[in-house]
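Problem statement: downstream parser choked on a complex file, so we are re-checking the raw output for the adenosine-5'-triphosphate run. The parser issue turned out to be on our end (a line-ending mismatch), but while we're here, posting the original submission so the record is complete.
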Amino acid sequence: MEGRKKYIGLSDSEVKASRQKHGANILTPPKKEPLWKLFLKKFEDPIIRILLIAAFLSLGISIIHNEYIETIGIFCAILLATGVSFWFEMDANKKFDVLNQVNDEDQIMVMRNGNVKQVAKKDIVVGDIVLLEIGNEVPADGELLEAVSMQIDESCLTGELSIDKTTDPEHFEEGVTYPSNWVLRGTKVINGHGVFEVHRIGDNTEFGKVAVKATEKVEGETPLNRQLDSLAKFIGVVGLILALFTFLVLVLKDVVFDPIVPMQKRQLALLAGAMLGVAVGMIKVWLPIIYGGLELLGKDSKLPKSVKEGGWLRWLLTGVLVTVAISSIGYVFGVDPLNSSSWINLDTATEILQAFMVAVTLVVVAVPEGLPMSVTLSLALSMRRMLKMNNLVRKMHAVETMGATTVICTDKTGTLTQNQMQVASTNFYGLEDQRLTDSEISRLVIGNISVNSTAFLDFSDPKKVAALGNPTEGALLLWLNNSKILYSNIRNKEAIIEQLPFSTERKFMATFVDSPKLRKKVLYVKGAPEVVLSKCKHVITTEGLVPVNEYKEKINSQLLQYQNQAMRTLGFAYQYVDDAKAAVEDLIKGELVFLGIAGISDPVRSDVPEAVQHCLSAGVGVKIVTGDTYGTAKEIGRQIGIWKDDEDTDLNIIGGVDFEKLSDEEALNRVQGLKIMCRARPTDKQRLVHLLKQKGEIVAVTGDGTNDAPALNYADVGLSMGSGTSVAKEASDITLLDDSFSSIATAVMWGRSLYKNIQRFMLFQLTINVAALLIVFLGSVFGQQLPLTVTQMLWVNLIMDTFAAGALASLPPDPNVMKTKPRKNSDFIVTPSIAKHILFTGVMFVILLLGMMYYFSGPVHLNSFFSYVAEGDRERYFLSYFFTVFVLLQFWNMFNAKAYATGKSAFAGLNKSAGFELVALIILVGQILIVTFGGDVFRTMPLTIQDWGIIIGGTSVVLWIGELVRLIRKK
Ligand code: ATP
């Protein structure tokens, strides 16, 4: 293999020119569906469809009566409801789009102006010289200039999981889809490293052409959604039964037993036929609800395909056919369907339609349409806000699962520590005073650090030279640099024959080079000291070669000293080799010469101990899983506050190898007590996660390396590091952009707050549902007038709910959620205490409202209480009053919902919830406008200012009682 060339890369002006000519390295996102199409999709909702059918039927009657008011009201309500939920959904989608933009910001190492630096993926231009490392995703298409043991995962383009890449024409593979010296955008480096020149970018890349996935996939369904789905099914069935019952009662009451015009048998027969036809025509609405109910009862029955996939039109036609068929049968028995005397009278038809509308509305009221939207909105809002806190959420479910997390298995480097590695101390036994000179041993040390490495130094800012790539190796290069030794001079001269890159499993790295300076072929090895030492026969000291055994004790005691200061330790070795063709792996047979050790310090991040404390007090366990040694890991554990010398014993710490030796049963008994796993390999990490999950824990795991992917995938929430490999990022659910543990603690807080917000919305919405359902049901069965009209219920249910969903979903996270223990993931979101709360409040509202209805049902109280209203208007005035009381009871209940589970007053932090205030205002102003100007559409008339005062003040008791309860509970 040839030696390394010195690359200069493009200059700034060349980059500019190239960008002007070829554009930026971004993929054109797939064309989005036009807005009107997305809006029309809202009408696919069966509930909205049936409302539309009802609205059109009502339009028919309106034309005959020449009275359009109520029909217009229904159409407006439908448009407004679809409009509002469409707007919220658009907003949520916009928030998800952020994900793709962040993807374009991935940092890529390039050579520019003769210097290695990092630029965003989107800023790569044609002609750039890009450096690739293991775990990187290739940012553009291009030709390899250099490739060391390079293997690429091309599965996203060709399905090939591992392809060897080389620049040596002799080794070019034939019959492969893409040439052996080409790398392609979107593919990943799974082994080795290399350098390539960019030829094609953005849409011109193979990846861009096939446009396999121009956007990050965001899966829709979350565990919470599934829970809500069964809740919706339950409510659907209850609503349907109540609706059916109400319809029957109303029809029997108004049409059969107490009709305006008495009905004849043939009219009834034809009516029954027509109704059956309507029932068949609407099968797509009610049958799924019934099947949903059966599913809840544990019956595994599948909705017939004809209903699931059959078009609406087809079923409507079938309904017409059924009516025709029944009428024909009627004809045989002497009922002539074409004779108008067999038809029911128009007023009766209007009454039936009215009963139908009430039934439809009951279903509409029962189904909590706001729920799924509230979840989507909460997730979208959390995702965007979490991004500001350095958490990039890749998979939606992660936000809520984070809230249920009981254990966090965290990496050490970067997550707990600052990832600013520095060589704190060295002990090269052949160096006098650890000084690097021109001696042979110095050259071996310098060569080992410079060439047996994949890191680079960025000299863009000469005052602050920065390390790029592997941080451990970067620290060593910086150490050389401090001694005024430029690593690249050495690296460019020594020709690499073969290289074994560092891996966490192997825990060492080896490079076989031809050194012109030493005039010999040398094998450099560096890695975990005990691993390197086990491959050595001698130690080179200032006195010459000494057998390892004689020196081991001294080395170990020095290592222990480093580790007790939380330092990462490294060992170095070399061997002169004569056999030019020998493979590295064959060379490492225990004949190496040990050069010495280095201690690398990496201070704990200052915010970590507090964040760890937050997690611990929130009942979330923290476990360190590190590749470092027992001593180093324990010291870090001590510094962050999870390791207590007086409490913890050897049962709380284990090494990867020992862990592997434990049987599953033994390991299961130990995993929950473990606090630290040292010298861990990815397989140990994966097993730990597996066993913890078996113990019923909800596990969040951090990982940055390619081989962490299985553990990340397997965990309930996988957290990758912003600086980690793209493979790890892809396998993860959340990326911590700042790599820091405190972001994990924030994510737990967000997850819990989100869950609470959804519970709050449930509390609010389900109380309305219970109250409205019972009132309309009881009112229509026992009363004369409908207590709430269809349009009124639509306002309450479709619009107010949607707004409230927005308000409660956008409440800011509450740090207090970290004071309680984690919830069980299996817990149902409507906890028994919430259910009790809903039923109690709902029933109280119903008693109050029905009591009011009863009290004013006769003229006595109506006349005396509303004496200031013109006599003929009193009933309408009372109904407006009643409607407003209903809405305002819910309005104040929204404040109680906001305060739910905070232990604080509903007014606490109100100034921080602008969204909530706005929605409260919209609902109040909306109600005033509706009552004042709603007229016939809403069956309202303007109330006096005094009455507004009485209603607002009177209903606010709901809030004051809530405040009182909260106050008592606090004490
Ligand atoms: P952490 O929890 O700190 O992220 P890790 O699991 O990433 O640790 P590894 O990278 O596997 O740990 O490192 C394990 C050991 O391997 C280190 O203690 C060190 O001795 C050695 N080591 C680390 N990086 C390199 C490297 N680039 N070359 C050679 N040896 C290394």
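For whoever reads this later: The domain at 369-383+755-969 is CATH 1.20.1110.10 (Calcium-transporting ATPase, transmembrane domain).
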